[in-house]
Amino acid sequence: MSSIAQNKEWHSVSYSKVLESLDTSSEGLSTTEAGKRLKKEGPNIICRQSRESAFKILLRQFLNPLIYVLLTATIFAITMGKITDGIVVFCVIIINAIIGFVQEYQAGKTIQGLLQLIPENATVIRDGKQKNIQAAELVPGDYVLLQAGDKVSADMRLTFVKNMQCNESILTGESLPVEKNTDIIEADVGVADRKNMVFSGTLITSGTAEGVVVLAGIKTEIGKISALLQTTASVKSPLTKSLEKIARGITYAIILVSVLVFLIGIFRNYTFIDAIFFAITLAVAAIPEGLPAVITIASAIGIMRMAKRQAIIRHLSAVETLGSTTVICSDKTGTLTLNEMTVQVLWNGKQKFNVTGVGINTDGKILKNDSDEEGKEDEIGELISAAALCNDATLHKKEGHWKSVGDPTEVALIAVAGKFGINEDELRSKWRRLDELPFDSEKKIMATLHLSPSGEKIIYLKGAPESVIPLLLNSKNSSEVRTEALQLAGTGMRVLAFASRKLDSEHSSLITEEDLCDFTFLGIQAISDPPRMEVKEAIDSCHNAGITVKMITGDHPATAGAIGRELGFINADRVITGKELQNLNAQEIQEVVKNTNIFARVSPEDKLNLVKALQANGEVVAMTGDGVNDAPALKRADIGVAMGISGTAVAKEAADMILADDNFESIKAAVEEGRRVFDNLLKSIVFLLPTSIGLGLVIFIAVLFFPSEGGILLIPIQPVQVLWINLITAVALSLPLALEAMEPDVMNRPPRKPNKPLLSSLIIFRMILVSLVMAGGTIGLFLWEYNIELSRGMEHSLAISEAQTMAVTAMVLFQVFYLIDCRSLNFSVNKIGLFSNPFIYIGIATVLFVQAAFVYFPFMNRWFHSSPLKAVAWGMSAMVAFSILIIISIEKWIQRKYFKNVKM
Prior knowledge:
This protein is α+β, with helices and mostly antiparallel strands. Helix 24 links the parallel strand 24 (639-643) and strand 25 (657-659). The longest helix has 42 residues, at 664-705. The two termini are 66 Å apart.
């Protein structure tokens, strides 16, 4: 047993050597020895990662600088008897915490999916007898029996194989089952090329085999992926990082200015309580309480739109990350291609024929090369019929959908027969099958014996060209067949050769080995998993949007290169394999990923390293995948994209987004929607922040210059009124911005750079300008109304209440007019359509209604200390507020004229 830990390349030594190294045999381990090894090695399970408790997740929602300020404001407000104000602020905190908790609690289930891949039982030889044991009890050295339908329960070196194929797509990404053997394989090959081994979690699709367990539990390939998942950290989205930076900046500024306000209050002989009150009022005014809710709701709206375009978002932050994506790393099978094998080319020994139509259906034609003339019966009729007869698959249309049964390659042969007008059921009933030699993975051929309608007996043969050529009667054209087969295989297609042999009518109705000779060559059919028709256009669209598309696949390099060239990948002739990557260090991989867009035969570690290298180069990476092998890279990527149809549960849990239709076109659509969401979120931020800054300025100026009249603090807007503006009106007005139409240039501009500040210098200038106009207009109207009412002999407290109500109304109307300008940060409203977003006007109408309630409803007057206004006060507020629309329209015009190349 000493060599177990040392020998990691089990595929590179003979199985007899493996048995010797593990101190076992085909008689299996004794029960006693198996028990000792189980105690030493541990059970054959993947350890469950402990999940964070719900309480810890909830507690983390309060660990935010802005929340600290709000909590402090709540405590002081209640302490000073401002119960209503304190309750309102506290409700804001709770709502934001609940939103964050629900979003985060959905994550962290990835390892659970891995556990489902390990079967419950396994058939082994123990004490020289066949036994059925729990898979968890398997240990290195156990001798296991495998058959079609079994899920492999540990990594095993095969010792006996009979026509066995294994579906390893969850590990390698290859859609076709892999033929297995017991031959020794060179040491430095990837998992996909280890034909003499089977791996935990994969599925035996046909045949039987025997093998010895070499790795179990966490040491298996599946176990390694589990370990990678547990140690792979998720990456924060660009917007999250930017908002955290803004939140820190706002927090520090609020603390600094609040302390300054407190000191100014003390300097101006306010009482300690009054000075604290003003400081808290400013803090409440300056914090954009509605921002977290707006971001969450806007993202949720984006999620609903993306779902209609087949992109299901699991995490809210993924929505805006898509808009910043600079590189899309796509799997090949099922994403760029259909994952439906299709015959592309026929060759009858003289002439080529191209097959139109793709996928599992009979739509299409068989055309002579470089012409629109269809192939004729005497040219390709027998070649197509032979492929349908020497075949066990079926293809039928049921309820408008094509349903297939059998090997994908054989289904493709049936589909091309249908394109030629041949129905396989009718053909098979006329050409009755008498006998067959099933496909042999060693000989790589299949043969069937048929009785023709005229009573002749004929054998049809199909197989790999190198296996069929030696069996031909006429060897003169062997070199030509071999050359053509190699040429087609070089384009990444799977090539099958077909031949026939007529027998005497007295011949037995059985096929013998002696009958496998003197065949007449019928032709070749070349099969591939074709690209999706819409993908090329989607990739071109991504390139126009400044997004690089890379293919990262477990498939063969020739196949990957051929698909890349057909789809228009940049630098498609350069293909790097996982074996080459493993010889490079991290810095060298960073250089390679800059100019290489196609990677083949990659392992899970390779995929993860590629994503890390791209991120180290400053890229925002979207990674697609469907198998367990993709899960670590999906988790590490800025946005992981799993396949909804073919994807495993593990891949889906590790991903941020799921494609309902497994189509790359949907990724492009999601990027488009992501950019739209980001644009609209930025509009919401640019709309909300100036209001908060403007309110803060109002309080700051009041503390700095305003007197205390009649024992009542002269303040233009009270804290609870500030919350009314920040939460009710601001949110109601900013939410319609999330429904804005796409900007005209959404997919004709480069992605936003990850290190670029969220708020550009032009945006900051605009926000300062808006804040000053809002603060100046609001203070001016407050003073005008206050002095007018005092001059009319109104009681001092009522004059303040009415003036404050007018100030709040003015601020709300400022927001209404500013909202129209925020519908586009760069373009005029006319360019995006004055009525393209009716929700804007619904939001404005809603705000005007609730503001009227704020002014006139008695219970609102009590809660918010407001007073009814006369019509002239509304008119004055509207006139002053309208100035913001004129000022920002002029500023936009100057920006377009003199800063054409500077985008917001």
